[in-house]
Structures are given as structure tokens and as C-alpha cells.
Design a protein that fits this description.
mainly alpha
């Protein structure tokens, strides 16, 4: 019960980030579950998928109502991602938590750099239409993101937004809304893959974190409408970089997160 209560304010913060910038929730959910709530990397990665998928679904619903989602691209992107997430989840069972964390860090830094770069022009392009669908680029991006989502046990929003903006030429505001739809679908598929490979969760803690994250995500979509997208994108870059450096120092010098 104590851990569930502690999870509530952290869930609100995670939800604000997910709803405001279209991703990044798992970047905070994993460390919170491991370092604050005492979960092992395996159960935490599965629980984070639930938390972020719930938050993404709430945020996606709010932004879809305002017409910001590029539905055709979102569904085309999600289909190969859902399939490849199973392969990623199977591959993760053969890798130690330490290796998993160390492999995750450079990915976070690359995504942070890409988000910062795109955020520089975010406010200028926020009103543009959905880009033309490139089947090849979208299917390749979806497959790769699905593998990473299943392998690392994260929703992947911190990667999806840079991919949508830099690789698929989508405006930042539309990328935020579209990424939430993709997060919901791919997160659900990756969760099913993790459960199929035997992963478990702490139900009370996950429920508390997930419910508060959903509330935070709804608030985040409202905040995101009022703040400059450039500032939101840069804030996400800073958060991702800070967490990556923390994980690097902890893993190299202090033994890393617990694996139980």
C-alpha cells in the first residue's frame, strides 16, 4: 500500500510528459519502478508498458478529438511494429539486465539529440497537414521501433516522435498526437509479447502508477496546447539525456538496477 501511494505523484508527472510531448513516459516509468518502487528490471519493463499504454490511450483520445492525429500513417506504422515487438521480447529473454540497460543508453542519447534538433522549428510547422504516406519508410520505421519496444520493454514514444518528424517529415504537434496512437497500439502488442514470454508485474503498484499516469496524460494534452512546442521538445530532450547519464553512471560504478 505504501509503494502504491508513493507511485501516485510520480504517475502524474509521467502522464504530463506523455500527454504533453507524445512520449518519454517509459524513460521515467522504468527508473521510478526500479529505483523508487523497488521493482526488478524484468517486471518493471513489463509494468512500464502498461503504464505508458494507458497514458497514451488517454492522450490519444484527447488529441484525436481535436483532429491532430494522422490516422493512416499511425495504423500503417503500428502494424509491423506489433509483429516485430514479439521478436524483440523473445530476444530480450537472452540478455542480462546490465547489457539491456547499457544498450538502451546510446539509443536514448540519439533520440534526445534528434528531438532537440527537430524542436528548433517545431512552432513554425505545427499547423501543417499530414505528410504523404511513404509505405517503405513507414514500414521500415514501424518494424525497427517494434523490435526496440519489445526488446527494451518501453513504449518507444521518445523514439517515435523523432522518427515521425525527422524520417517521415511530420510537424511536431502532429507527431505528438500520432505517436500517442502508435504508443497505444504497439505498447499493447509489446505487453502481450512480454506476458507471453513469462513476465509478471506487481499489480497494486502498476495499477496506482497507471491510473495516476492516465490523469496526468489528460492534463498534459491541455498543457501541451498552451506551451510552445519548441520548449516541450527541448524539455523532453533534457529529461532523456539526464536519465541516460544517470543509468550509465549507476550501471558502470554502482552495480546497476536490481534484476529481480
Amino acid at each position: 500500500m505504501t509503494e502504491a501511494l508513493i507511485a501516485l505523484p510520480f504517475g502524474l508527472a509521467i502522464g504530463l510528459i506523455v500527454g504533453g510531448v507524445g512520449g518519454g513516459g517509459a524513460i521515467l516509468a522504468l527508473p521510478v519502478l526500479v529505483y523508487v518502487l523497488g521493482e526488478g528490471v524484468g517486471p518493471a519493463s513489463t509494468a512500464s508498458l502498461i503504464v505508458v499504454a494507458v497514458a497514451a490511450a488517454v492522450g490519444a483520445g484527447a488529441l484525436a478529438f481535436r483532429g491532430h492525429v494522422c490516422w493512416r500513417l499511425a495504423l500503417t506504422f503500428s502494424a509491423p511494429a506489433a509483429v516485430s515487438s514479439l521478436l524483440g521480447a523473445i530476444a530480450a529473454t537472452a540478455v542480462s539486465p546490465r547489457v539491456l540497460v547499457l544498450a538502451f543508453i546510446p539509443l536514448m542519447l540519439v533520440a534526445a539529440a534528434g528531438t532537440w534538433r527537430r524542436a528548433q522549428g517545431a512552432d513554425a510547422d505545427e499547423a501543417t497537414d499530414c505528410p504523404a504516406l511513404s509505405w517503405t519508410r513507414t514500414l521500415v520505421a514501424g518494424s525497427v521501433l517494434g523490435l526496440l519496444t519489445g526488446f527494451f520493454g518501453v513504449g518507444g514514444g521518445f523514439l517515435i516522435v523523432p522518427v515521425l518528424t525527422l524520417w517521415l517529415d511530420m510537424s511536431f504537434r502532429r507527431a505528438v498526437a500520432t505517436s500517442l496512437v502508435i504508443l497505444t497500439l504497439t505498447g499493447a502488442a509489446a505487453l502481450a509479447s512480454h506476458l507471453a514470454t513469462g513476465s509478471g508485474i506487481n499489480v497494486p503498484v502498476t495499477a496506482a502508477l497507471g491510473s495516476s499516469t492516465a490523469v496526468g496524460a489528460l492534463a498534459g494534452t491541455m498543457v501541451g496546447r498552451r506551451l510552445p512546442q519548441q520548449h516541450l521538445g527541448r524539455a523532453l530532450s533534457v529529461v532523456v539525456t539526464a536519465v541516460a547519464l544517470f543509468l550509465l553512471v549507476d550501471t558502470l560504478f554502482f552495480g546497476g538496477p536490481p534484476s529481480g
